[in-house]
Amino acid sequence: MIRNTAASWGSLARAFHWVLGIAIIGMLAYGWWMNHVPARADKFFYRSIHADIGYLVLLLTVLRLVWRGVNPTPALPAEMPSWQRIAARVSHGALYAVTILVAMLGWAHSGARAQDYSSFFGLFHVPKITSPDKAAADAYEDRHIFFAYVLLALIVLHLAAVAFHYFVRRDRVAARMIGANPADRAA
């Protein structure tokens, strides 16, 4: 089933989740590696690839939010305390917001650099949203890195909640993103 149900995420929502999850974690690791590699002549190449994948992450995140907006959100277990429901909503909202913020700061950084990263895999140029300015580029980059660490902390919190629901509570919260509810298949 492509669409979500009241009990389970649909295959497209799950695909968005896993592709974006892997891409974002990969981008965080790649970004850390890029900034800790000694200066080298091909550093621009690595940063350009990081920017290209960042544009894709931004696009997929927006598409995921649109898809989520036109589909039902599976209900949380009825026995879940209200504070956990609120925490789930706030943490998911923060994950989306910070993912978009990190990508937008990276895009702003790209345009503010004299040698920008606007070439999308050599196919076309992504429009700039900022003008070249070294001081602004440095500020955007600093904020991009800071919020990337905030995003990493949110991901760790998300994974801790998944482990809590899967191993401690043993409810279907984590299972809904792994596979469909057997009752949904019969419907």
Overview of the molecule:
The chain has helices spanning 11-36, 43-69, 82-112, 134-169, 175-178, 182-186, and strands at 119-120, 124-125. The protein is mainly α and 187 residues long. The chain has one domain (11-184): Up-down Bundle (Fumarate Reductase Cytochrome B subunit).
Brief account:
InterPro entries: Cyt_b561_bac/Ni-Hgenase, Cytochrome_b561_oxidase, Di-haem_cyt_TM. This protein has helices at residues 11-36, 43-69, 82-112, 134-169, 175-178, 182-186; strands at residues 119-120, 124-125.
Tell me the number of strands.
2
The first-to-last residue Cα distance is 10 Å
From N to C, what is the helix and strand string? HHHEEHHH
CATH-defined fold name: Fumarate Reductase Cytochrome B subunit
In which order are the strands of the major sheet placed? 1-2
Largest sheet: 2 strands, antiparallel
Average pLDDT: 92
Beta content comes to under 5%
CATH hierarchy, class: Mainly Alpha
Share of residues in helices: 55-70%
How many domains? The number is 1
Rg for CA atoms: 19 Å
Kindly name the structural category. mainly alpha
Number of helices: 6
Shape label: elongated
What are the low-pLDDT stretches, counting only 5+ consecutive residues below 50? 182-187
Supply the CATH architecture.
Up-down Bundle
